[in-house]
């Protein structure tokens, strides 16, 4: 085996990161990060979205190279040029999204990427599956088809695949995000078995429960920096939350309200008799792969109110917005928007007609057509309103609207005829906002409206949302950024671990509470 | 902005198309040399007979009529990202339905009967395209496979019709009776075979251009083809688009079929389609899915055919060569398109 038992007592770390930095353009994803992992140690890497966790994983596994700093494997400085290179050096990884072939058996999967030409020795592969599975006490059938396994089963195959090589370090990227509680327990058994075997494990996670269940050390990242690296027995969940949210290590071991964490008072709170525009009752939603994203979600949004939907990505926010925009139907329960009900006709066309505007999270995929002009993109949300005519399109009006939007929203472009794909992300987003707000919507679904934008544009986007709220729109704001939620929202719902927390008034909660909910911690 | 979706300007894409033509020409020269003839002499005959004398131009125009109509249909479908490979079947069914209606229509005055005949052809094609569209929209069937299979059915059906219910009264050849004169598209210029189908094709060009560039439906087509997710987001239903565009595309193919019968052959007979279905796809692609370039591309291909007819008659170079060239042009076009796409990334 790759590690003998006494290896756990040697002091040479399996992996050592020293002053690692990585920038994408002007954005510093990771800044001067130092971290080391000893054999038989399970380290949790925590942090909010965009804190730099994925970049660290990518650098360790050869997906991307650091701009500066060193990576040492067993005390030797190395350059990890590719994922294959990482594997050769004993670094295995289980990504959040699995790379499996549905028509292969578990055993055949092991041969992927390493089998030479000629016949596949299935007997040897089956024996190997049994050997590795036995070693770590994993239940798996070597002849089972990948496509017939559930998410947890596929994850086991990925772990198996990583372990079929000589692995000294196993990186698990958000391993528990998609698992049921029973499967999480089973995964942790495997992790413990590996630890006993002397394998070092880096577990990227946002769930605090994982940290206390199985990890030895907790490393917290904030804005690309390591702000906390302590043995798990020395930290509290409140402390970790505050480190994740504020990056402040001072408060790591105490639970207290952060300074400046008082919710700003709204000048004009929505009147209690403001009409309800969005009503969601006992809603259940499924992901595209069929797994349950959300269950039992209920909330109302009134006119003139911003409801924030907080949570780590992938907890059903996207599914909820797509459902409320009419793109998907709910899997259970009902949604009602402005007299439309998901039990009746429910489509983007119907809902747009009722006054719903939709700023989707994946702009390039859904909100724009890259090689059409700004003017043509302006029409997209209004194809079936009569704004630009009925059977024949009024291109000159679309052009006028676009020119006005360019002025009003300060969009940097050569004019309404430029293909929108040539614009920067921020300018594209401004056009999308301009388009969605053009007809005075009653309901605005804004999914991460300011993600990836520069500070100035973020300010502009937030101001626009405030104006719309004051003009009486009901706004659902999806955001993972607690500062943004604090700055804008009246109430907040948190989606985590397949369930929902809240809604609560922003005045009656604080960032620590929301952060705890986001971590699935009540 | 008015016609920003389809403006005839020499942008990068058009230059690519021209480059494709050049590569096709080069391949042609190479093959001619292989056949043991002087490329220059062949080229002179090809271009001279196909494009430069009166008879050649008239013949090229005759051939470009069905290519234009069918090519327009392909443009519509391809713009929506729906790959209608079933032009041939739609064309055949359109022509067959119209010919079947001919006995009912011929007693009517010509001003009424001829438009009705064309309408019947259009309808037949629309139904045949609509079947594939329904299968795609309702059951998610792949339109490429559906339209190809429908081609085979149509070919066999027409083959049976002209040996059965639609066979000529004398019952000798597998073909229909000649259409009554009132049902024939008039010849435009004496001494040529050029019929009023040319006018039909020109009108269709204008109509399709208008549909694509100005109408809401054309916008929905373009958006669906370029980004189906964005289309759905905007309230456009891709299923409805797929069904309707296959109907429309088939309608134009059916119109091409009956125009070919009424304007040129005068009767339904085997093999009158002569590869129009596949060439129409090449025409649409060469026109970069822009309706106003379709007649130009169609004329170019037709001239190539007419010229190579003469080449086959006057020299050692065999006629199938032109099919090789046609295939090469389509291939070169696709390759270059992929190259430019790769460069953008």
From TrEMBL, chain A:
<dbReference type="Pfam" id="PF00005">
    <property type="entry name" value="ABC_tran"/>
</dbReference>
<dbReference type="InterPro" id="IPR003593">
    <property type="entry name" value="AAA+_ATPase"/>
</dbReference>
<dbReference type="InterPro" id="IPR017871">
    <property type="entry name" value="ABC_transporter-like_CS"/>
</dbReference>
<dbReference type="InterPro" id="IPR027417">
    <property type="entry name" value="P-loop_NTPase"/>
</dbReference>
<keyword id="KW-0547">Nucleotide-binding</keyword>
<protein>
    <submittedName>
        <fullName>Nucleoside ABC transporter ATP-binding protein</fullName>
    </submittedName>
</protein>
<keyword id="KW-0067">ATP-binding</keyword>
<dbReference type="InterPro" id="IPR003439">
    <property type="entry name" value="ABC_transporter-like_ATP-bd"/>
</dbReference>
<dbReference type="GO" id="GO:0016887">
    <property type="term" value="F:ATP hydrolysis activity"/>
</dbReference>
<dbReference type="InterPro" id="IPR050107">
    <property type="entry name" value="ABC_carbohydrate_import_ATPase"/>
</dbReference>
<feature type="domain" description="ABC transporter">
    <location>
        <begin position="15"/>
        <end position="248"/>
    </location>
</feature>
<feature type="domain" description="ABC transporter">
    <location>
        <begin position="278"/>
        <end position="522"/>
    </location>
</feature>
<dbReference type="GO" id="GO:0005524">
    <property type="term" value="F:ATP binding"/>
</dbReference>
From TrEMBL, chain B:
<dbReference type="Pfam" id="PF02653">
    <property type="entry name" value="BPD_transp_2"/>
</dbReference>
<feature type="transmembrane region" description="Helical">
    <location>
        <begin position="292"/>
        <end position="308"/>
    </location>
</feature>
<feature type="transmembrane region" description="Helical">
    <location>
        <begin position="240"/>
        <end position="259"/>
    </location>
</feature>
<protein>
    <submittedName>
        <fullName>Nucleoside ABC transporter membrane protein</fullName>
    </submittedName>
</protein>
<feature type="transmembrane region" description="Helical">
    <location>
        <begin position="114"/>
        <end position="135"/>
    </location>
</feature>
<keyword id="KW-1003">Cell membrane</keyword>
<dbReference type="GO" id="GO:0022857">
    <property type="term" value="F:transmembrane transporter activity"/>
</dbReference>
<feature type="transmembrane region" description="Helical">
    <location>
        <begin position="90"/>
        <end position="108"/>
    </location>
</feature>
<feature type="transmembrane region" description="Helical">
    <location>
        <begin position="320"/>
        <end position="339"/>
    </location>
</feature>
<feature type="transmembrane region" description="Helical">
    <location>
        <begin position="144"/>
        <end position="162"/>
    </location>
</feature>
<dbReference type="InterPro" id="IPR001851">
    <property type="entry name" value="ABC_transp_permease"/>
</dbReference>
<keyword id="KW-1133">Transmembrane helix</keyword>
<keyword id="KW-0472">Membrane</keyword>
<feature type="transmembrane region" description="Helical">
    <location>
        <begin position="271"/>
        <end position="287"/>
    </location>
</feature>
<feature type="transmembrane region" description="Helical">
    <location>
        <begin position="194"/>
        <end position="212"/>
    </location>
</feature>
<feature type="transmembrane region" description="Helical">
    <location>
        <begin position="60"/>
        <end position="78"/>
    </location>
</feature>
<dbReference type="GO" id="GO:0005886">
    <property type="term" value="C:plasma membrane"/>
</dbReference>
<keyword id="KW-0812">Transmembrane</keyword>
